[in-house]
């Protein structure tokens, strides 16, 4: 998945353009910046490449989610339905705007189970936030129907699925808003960064102001800008945007390599009849950044993971069920509502109830799932060797 594997002269050239002028900020300094506007240029490239009307860069994917929620009017007491399997950033963003994360089960797509979403809707539900995990997509058709039926906002956390599509449209551009992360281990990177994409000019204008202290960005003199609402500083720097500009030009090449490598590794694992694969609602739209596979039982999966660890080949294979960052089971800080500052009673009560909630359906899936990260720089020989090694280990266990 990570674009950092193919970092090179193109990224250095873009960063150097910025270093030549010394204008590291994305706003203002119109004269000295000599026409260099990397953030603006990257935003334009994002709208072109992913087919959305508007894109606004942020300092991280987490900031992009927070910004999107604020711009969509999600706040104090609103419930946001999100999956039990995601990166911690998803609930961090919900909490940051005062809203309540309502975690529900995933299904064999490794993303929101539409039936669980429907069952969790209350009069306080404002938003459904699918997370397109591990390079592939949620069941967007079903989720869109639910959101339309109940007049809910659909916010896509597409941070891990840059380049993936659903029925020909890019993940992150299908809901009311969507986000990408450009952190260092994502499909394309800025070092740190993120973006909010939307087709709604009003949401976009709010994102634009919110990420820059509420500046309306209407005048030529930054100091004379008005502030129609309260914002924060979630700005990206020109240096980071410059890296992203070089990376987005390589995205098509990355996707071709990634899908090819993914398919080749998959052809090895497909030889084992006991292995099944993640269900992908639109297989043509899988970005291929991970190959996610299941064994029949938790015991077999744990034995395979242990054997891979013992033989030193676990690197790049993720057993999320035991992982501290991606699955509800290890989020004790969330379940105990451990925050540095006091939080609202509704948030606190909701978090404390998570420990009692039944996630057995998610457990039944995650305990049998391994995701293999696909490298861009593997050679065919390396993939064959890896595939043979994985097959041998799996066969020895089952
Ligand atoms: C990486 C990621 C984020 C947050 O991105 P950062 O840029 O690291 O803040 C949010 N959601 C998911 C699913 C992610 O993988």
From the structure provided, what is the oligomeric state, counting identical versus distinct chains?
single chain
Please estimate the helix content: 25-40%
Average pLDDT taken over every residue: 97
Percentage beta strand:
5-15%
The CATH superfamily name of the largest domain is Type I PLP-dependent aspartate aminotransferase-like (Major domain)
Ends: how far apart? 29 Å
CATH-derived architecture of the largest domain: 3-Layer(aba) Sandwich
Q: Which stretches of 5+ consecutive residues score pLDDT under 50?
A: none
Structural class by sheet pairing and helices: alpha/beta
What small-molecule ligands were found?
pyridoxal-5'-phosphate
The geometry reads as globular
What is the string of SSEs from the N terminus onward? Answer: HHEHEHEHEHEEEEEHHHEEHEHHHEH
Number of strands: 13
Task: Output the number of helix runs.
Answer: 14
The whole-angstrom Rg is 21 Å
* CATH class category label of the largest domain: Alpha Beta
CATH topology of the largest domain: Aspartate Aminotransferase, domain 2
């Amino acid at each position: 998945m990570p674009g950092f594997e193919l970092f090179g002269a193109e990224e250095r050239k873009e960063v150097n353009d910025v270093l030549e002028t010394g204008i590291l900020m994305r706003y203002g300094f119109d004269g000295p910046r000599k026409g260099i506007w990397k953030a603006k240029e990257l935003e334009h490239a994002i709208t072109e490449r992913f087919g959305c009307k508007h894109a606004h860069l942020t300092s991280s994917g987490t900031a992009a989610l927070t910004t999107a929620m604020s711009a969509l009017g999600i706040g104090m007491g609103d419930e946001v339905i999100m999956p039990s399997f995601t990166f911690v950033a998803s609930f961090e963003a919900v909490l940051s705007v005062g809203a309540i994360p309502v975690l529900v089960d995933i299904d064999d797509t490794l993303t929101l189970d539409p039936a669980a979403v429907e069952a969790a809707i209350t009069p306080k539900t404002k938003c459904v936030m699918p997370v397109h995990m591990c390079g592939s997509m949620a069941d967007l058709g079903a989720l869109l129907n639910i959101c339309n039926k109940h007049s809910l906002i659909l916010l896509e956390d597409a941070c891990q699925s840059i380049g993936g599509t659903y029925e020909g449209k890019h993940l992150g551009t299908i809901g009311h808003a969507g986000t990408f992360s450009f952190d260092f281990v994502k499909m394309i990177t800025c070092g740190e960064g993120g973006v909010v994409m939307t087709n709604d000019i009003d949401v976009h204008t709010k994102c634009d102001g919110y990420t820059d202290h509420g500046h309306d960005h209407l005048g030529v003199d930054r100091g004379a800008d008005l502030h129609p609402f309260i914002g924060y500083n979630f700005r990206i720097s020109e240096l980071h945007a410059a890296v992203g500009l070089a990376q987005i030009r390589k995205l098509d090449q990355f996707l071709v390599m990634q899908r090819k490598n993914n398919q080749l590794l998959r052809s090895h694992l497909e030889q084992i009849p006991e292995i099944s694969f993640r269900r992908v609602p639109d297989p043509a739209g899988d970005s291929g950044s991970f190959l996610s596979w299941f064994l029949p039982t938790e015991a077999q999966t744990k034995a395979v993971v242990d054997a891979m660890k013992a033989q030193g080949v676990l690197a790049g294979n993720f057993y999320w069920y035991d992982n501290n960052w991606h699955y509800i089971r290890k989020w004790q800080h969330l379940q105990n509502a451990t925050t540095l500052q006091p939080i609202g009673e509704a948030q606190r009560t909701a978090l404390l109830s998570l420990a009692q909630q039944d996630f057995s359906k998610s457990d039944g899936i995650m305990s049998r799932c391994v995701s293999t990260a696909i490298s861009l720089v593997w050679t065919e020989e390396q993939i064959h060797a890896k595939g043979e090694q994985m097959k041998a280990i799996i066969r020895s266990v089952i």
